[in-house]
Specification:
Blueprint lengths: L6 H22 L4 E3 L10 H11 L3 E3 L5 H6 L6 E6 L4 H4 L2 H11 L8 E9 L7 H20 L7 E7 L3 E3 L7 E2 L4 H14 L3 E4 L2 H7 L6 H4 L7 E2 L6 E2 L2 H15 L7 E6 L14 H16 L14 E3 L34 E3 L2 E3 L4 H23 L1
Parallel strand pairs: 1-2, 1-12, 2-3, 3-4, 4-5, 5-8, 8-11, 11-12
Antiparallel strand pairs: 6-7, 9-10, 13-14
Helix pairs in contact: 1-12, 5-6, 6-7
């Protein structure tokens, strides 16, 4: 019997195969941001990191500076950047002309090719005992925003700052979250800034700290997103099955207590160390894999918190690499998902690539099988066309 399958048959089959392929890529893409810290002397070059980030399908990176080598390396990529102004810059940034000069030198040259969407002015400033630094925070943010307005960039780049979770005086129950009294004089006008310019309120939240400090009272399953009875907020009857969501809603409640319901809370840092000092209970590769693995699953599901179920959690995981020069306890040097050579610190189903090495997870086999299936289908389609 003659075969009347022509080119249109092959094109139709090709279309369906490409549709399947596109769906696979969409499912495999990752919805979280990642912190790219560089306090180390053994990290791969930014040009190599580009390949790792692209292979992971990560599209959002948070820096702690505005490293020109990184911004240049990511030119013409789809990666969006949050860049940082360290605390040491705040005094100068209160001067509008210096703020504008910084933007013209460190930001503007890269904006045509690199997607920079946000500037964090300072990091955990309220966690310091430096009164002058605290007083400089809002004026510095205002100067940076004013400079963006002058340069016509304020619709492209927002201005914010990242806070430690301990700016709250109370976080339980979440609906009773409140800011520390000694910080209210600074936080109230800061919230007005966020509200006026529609910029997010950033929090560095680490359930690890709560568990480390009180392992006999804090459930490990609760902080690791593992099955547990949860904790019911008596004021709202909402059930929280993990600490991070409770922390996020406590921040929302604290903001609401000061009269704002129009400010989005985002997690600028969260993670779990794979190693720590002997007194850092819970720091292990197993717990780190469980925390970050379960967190990524919830991000993929676009979950919201119990008090804000329609607002998907917005999170930057800490961190891309272990950083061997960070001061402090051992845990500070062991938050990375990857060692500097590109090897995963633990397996959470991610796969990435650095030049001269392939880093694979247990899910790599399914990806290979999928590609093999696609190739087989193409060959079969070609053979059918020839009949």
């Amino acid at each position: 019997m003659a075969n009347n399958r022509g080119p249109s048959f092959f094109l139709t089959l090709l279309f369906h195969l490409l549709t399947i392929s596109a769906s696979f890529v969409q499912i495999s893409s990752l919805g979280f941001g990642i912190n790219y810290g560089q306090i180390a002397n053994n990290l791969p070059s930014p040009s190599r990191v580009v390949l790792l980030i692209k292979s992971l399908n990560v599209t959002r990176i948070k820096l702690y500076d505005a490293d020109p080598n990184v911004l240049l390396a990511f030119s013409n990529s789809n990666v969006q950047f949050v860049v940082g102004l360290g605390n040491e810059y705040l005094a100068n940034m209160t001067n509008p002309s210096k703020a504008q000069s910084w933007i013209q030198q460190h930001l503007q040259p890269y904006l045509s090719q690199t997607k920079i969407t946000c500037i964090t002015v300072g990091n955990e400033v309220f966690n310091t005992n430096d009164t002058q630094l605290i007083m400089n925070l809002l004026p510095a943010m205002q100067s940076v925003h004013g400079a963006l307005v002058n340069l016509g960039l304020d619709q492209q780049v927002t201005v914010t700052t990242a806070h430690s979770f301990n700016i709250l005086s109370n976080s339980y129950p979440p609906s009773s979250g409140s800011f520390r009294q000694d910080l209210l004089q600074y936080i109230q006008p800061l919230l007005a800034f966020h509200s006026q310019f529609n910029s997010p309120f950033l929090i560095n939240a680490y359930p690890f700290f709560a568990y480390k400090d009180n392992p006999s009272e804090v459930s490990l399953s609760y902080v690791l997103f593992e099955p547990n009875p949860g904790s019911i907020d008596p004021n709202t009857n909402l059930n929280y099955d993990n600490m991070l969501y409770a922390q996020i809603d406590a921040v929302y409640a604290a903001i609401k207590m000061l009269g704002h319901t129009d400010i989005e809370v985002r997690i600028s840092e969260t993670g779990w160390p794979s190693k720590g000092d002997t007194n850092e209970i819970g720091a292990s590769p197993e717990n780190a894999a469980t925390y970050n693995g379960n967190l990524l699953k919830r991000i993929e599901q676009k979950q919201g918190t119990p008090a804000n179920p329609s607002v998907p959690i917005d999170i930057y995981v800490f961190a891309l690499f272990n950083e061997n020069l960070k001061p402090g306890p051992a845990s500070e040097r062991n938050y990375g998902l990857y060692y500097p050579d590109g090897t995963p610190v633990y397996n959470i189903g991610l796969q990435g690539f650095l030049p001269e090495m392939v880093i694979a997870s247990s899910s790599n086999g399914s990806a290979v099988n999928f590609l093999a299936c696609i190739i087989t289908c193409f060959i079969s389609a070609w053979e059918l066309l020839r009949l």
